[in-house]
Amino acid sequence: MEEEADRLFTSSMHTLHVTCGDPIAVITWREIYIYLEKCVDACEHVADAVEGVVMKNS
């Protein structure tokens, strides 16, 4: 999941900077994409922690 999110982030950022002519929109969407990337990273950390607990208790 993390790798796919990274690819989507990179692709979305590229598309945003190439196609969007409004600097305010670029800044706004850039911040949204960065926030979503951080959310995916946090989910990955939670999944790793849950996996560790499951493995420890099995």
UniProtKB/TrEMBL annotation:
Record InterPro entries: PhoU-like_sf (IPR038078), UPF0111_domain (IPR052912)
Family matches, as Gene3D superfamilies: Phosphate transport system protein phou homolog 2, domain 2 (1.20.58.220)
PANTHER family: UPF0111 PROTEIN YKAA
Name of the protein described by the UniProt record: DUF47 domain-containing protein
